[in-house]
TrEMBL record:
Molecular function as annotated in GO: electron transfer activity; heme binding; metal ion binding
Keywords per UniProt: Cell membrane, Electron transport, Heme, Iron, Membrane, Metal-binding, Transmembrane, Transmembrane helix, Transport
Topology of the protein relative to the lipid bilayer: Multi-pass membrane protein
A GO biological process held by the record: respiratory electron transport chain
SUPFAM superfamilies: Transmembrane di-heme cytochromes
This protein's name: Cytochrome b561
Family under the similarity heading: Belongs to the cytochrome b561 family.
Main location: membrane
Database matches in InterPro entries: Cyt_b561_bac/Ni-Hgenase, Cytochrome_b561_oxidase, Di-haem_cyt_TM
Cofactor requirements of the protein: heme b
Source organism (scientific name): Vreelandella subglaciescola
Amino acid sequence: MSYHDTQQRYGVISRLIHWTMALLILAQFMALGGYINDGDHWIGNTIVPWHVDIGLLLLVLVSLRIVWMLSQRQQRPELKGQGVMALLTKGAHLLLYLCMVLMPVTGVLLMLGEGHGLAGFGIELVAESEQEMAWAIALGQWHAQISWLFVALVLGHLGAALYHHFVKHDDTLARMTTKRLGDS
């Protein structure tokens, strides 16, 4: 078991960050549904109250993920595809990372711009303010639009992984799991 990435597969640290973020992002996607009926249902009562906390945790994790990725760039597995497909794959990954950074940043900007303050896991990070910041609100209002782009990108990412596994029968999906799929 290697903590570092290799040309053949992602190491334990990359996989741990990836799958932890995947679960937290799934919870965030569920929170989108929590805004229906003013949150008067299970999702609205359980997941939505954690939305900001999870978003802040995801910002920390994506920051760590980027630092780790850059430290491993020489030995990471190559993205699959050739020609136009390679460009699309790299572009999609870049957009995924951009969304993973912009989602929490725009959420924080919206909250602070409206004077709400910011707390994470019960710790006040920025106090409430009576003064609104129009520029922060303007940038923060991109939060919802970016979330829908992010949903589409994640579904595309999942679809591509399943396509590689079930149609192309290559090791793309297995490189991000704990052991080779199909191995005993």
